From TrEMBL:
Transmembrane segments: none annotated. It comes from Carya illinoinensis. This is Glycosyltransferase. Keywords: Glycosyltransferase, Transferase. It is an enzyme of class 2 (transferase). Its EC number is 2.4.1.-. GO terms for molecular function: UDP-glycosyltransferase activity.
Length: 474
């Protein structure tokens, strides 16, 4: 009898990390016939969106919830990275039990962990299971993370105060203030923890990255050249994007698609800040009025404004959220009835982006959203909020030139006139036309990477953890 490879996968809490790892799980189970079990750590109770993607998993992918972790009240406001780390470490006893029981059925050939769950590498070592990291962002960010300890030793100032932009091998120069949010306060506890996460990246058997060669040729090559310096092998197997989930709210989901059905081709700007991004009250107001002033059609996923950091909702349960539409300027919804549609909190993004009426995307530049846009050839307005989004915005606007970038005023607010102008620029202007053409080229390159002979399919077939592997992705 043929022995199937048996793999355990550990995502970290947060939709942006869960979605691509579940897609990887599906790919390995459905197309490569591996036995795959996703082990799901949870903080508090799972959100509706999370339940939606897990319920949509095919029966060939098993999933098991670890007992929910509850954090003390004073930790609930902590940096999401700290909360994630605590969720993982406090789940160690149950994680150990699940891995041991899986091993008892059939030995595990690999344990694939999300980068933010890297604390659990300790458990993999204890149980002697080969560890791999799934990096849900791009090779440019990975390059920064792999070099962070060196940068930490070299520079003593805050990165935002570095006199020169950072020149990572193969990447365009990036100013310190645009580097990943987690490293912007070197005195913080989170920076220390984050540095520890990045050091662990060097100890794994391989890093699976959600990117493709033609998108980041130079930086991938530069990372591969560092193999002798002890960098783990790299497997660029993307783009892996969401291929289907039940939305957390079917009514709003189908409302979006029906509304799009009635709009002219390529006429609608989709506006969304990912699974968690939120704006301040003032900024939400300016965005509403800027959308209205632009006169362009829009479909806007509105989230309640924040009183603090833009990622405050990252680990929160959206079902507890106040009605976000109540925060819009008075009369906005009525005045823009023929022009736009607003939906609270969540939309079926992949279906929206692949709809023929969608012609542009105002995005926070989360990496999943970026890849979903590339797969649909949709040009962007880059509006980064947190995480690695500023790095992604620089890459998209200055290197790939597929995004326009609105400017903030001296108070850090993007005002309505600027918003209206950049929207017109994307939807009907010359800059938008150029960005759209370049996005179409990237879409073709992404599709080629996924062909049976494409670079990403090849990288997937090179993963050494399988026992009897015949690539048959499509
Ligand atoms: N998403 C969605 N509907 C929404 C908001 C987000 O389906 O209303 C999905 C989106 O398609 C993507 C993921 O959630 O797959 C967001 O991931 P991303 O990396 O873009 O951003 P994050 O949420 O991690 O900030």
């Amino acid at each position: 009898m043929e022995i199937k490879s048996h793999i355990a996968i550990l995502p970290s809490p947060g939709m942006g990390h869960l979605i691509p790892l579940l897609e990887l799980a599906k790919l390995l189970a459905l197309h490569h016939d591996f036995g795959v079990t996703c082990i799901i750590p949870i903080l508090g109770s799972p959100s509706k969106a999370m339940i939606g993607v897990l319920e949509a998993l095919p029966t060939s992918v098993d999933h098991v919830f670890l007992p929910p972790v509850c954090l003390e009240d004073d930790l609930l406001g902590a940096e999401p990275g700290i909360q994630i780390s605590l969720t993982i470490t406090r789940s160690f006893p149950s994680l150990r039990d699940v891995l041991k029981s899986l091993q008892a059925t059939s030995p595990l050939d690999a344990f694939i962990l999300d980068t933010s769950a890297s604390d659990a590498l300790e458990v993999a070592k204890e149980l002697n299971i080969s560890p791999y990291i799934f990096f849900s962002s791009n090779a440019t960010v990975l390059s920064l993370l792999l070099q962070l300890s060196k940068l930490d030793e070299t520079f003593s100032c805050e990165y935002k105060d570095m006199p020169e932009p950072l020149r990572l091998p193969g990447c365009i120069p990036i100013h310190g203030r645009d580097l990943i949010h987690s490293i912007q306060d070197r005195k913080s506890e989170w920076y220390r923890l984050f540095l520890r996460h990045t050091k662990r990246l060097h100890s794994v058997k391989g890093i699976i990255v959600n990117t493709f060669r033609d998108l980041e040729e130079r930086v991938i090559k530069a990372l591969e050249d560092e193999k002798e310096a002890g960098y783990p092998p790299l497997y660029p197997i993307g783009p892996i994007i969401q291929t289907g989930s039940r939305t957390s709210n079917e009514v709003d989901g189908s409302k979006c698609l029906t509304w799009l059905d009635n709009q002219p081709g390529g006429s609608v700007l989709y506006v969304s800040f990912g699974s968690a991004g939120s704006l301040s009250n003032d900024q939400l107001n300016e965005l509403a009025l800027g959308l209205e002033q632009s006169g362009e059609k829009f479909l806007w996923v509105v989230r309640s404004p924040n009183n603090g950091p833009a990622n405050a909702a990252y680990l929160s349960n959206q079902s507890h959220e106040l009605d976000p539409l109540a925060f819009l300027p008075e009369g906005f919804v009525e005045r823009t009835k023929g022009q736009g549609l607003v939906v609270p909190s969540w939309a079926p993004q992949v279906q929206v982006l692949s709809h023929g009426s969608t012609g542009g995307f105002l995005t926070h530049c989360g990496w999943n959203s970026t890849l979903e846009s590339i797969m649909n050839g949709t040009p962007l307005i880059a509006w980064p909020l947190f995480g690695e989004q500023r790095m992604n915005a620089v890459f998209l606007a200055e290197d790939l030139k597929v995004a326009l970038r609105p400017k903030e005023n001296e108070k850090g607010v993007v005002v309505r006139e600027e918003i209206a102008q950049v929207i017109k620029g994307l939807m009907v202007g010359e800059d938008g036309k150029n960005a759209r053409n370049r996005m179409k080229d990237l879409k073709i390159a992404a599709e080629k990477a996924l062909y049976p002979e494409g670079s990403s399919t090849r990288a997937l077939s090179e993963l050494p953890f399988k026992r009897d592997f015949k690539p048959r992705r499509f």
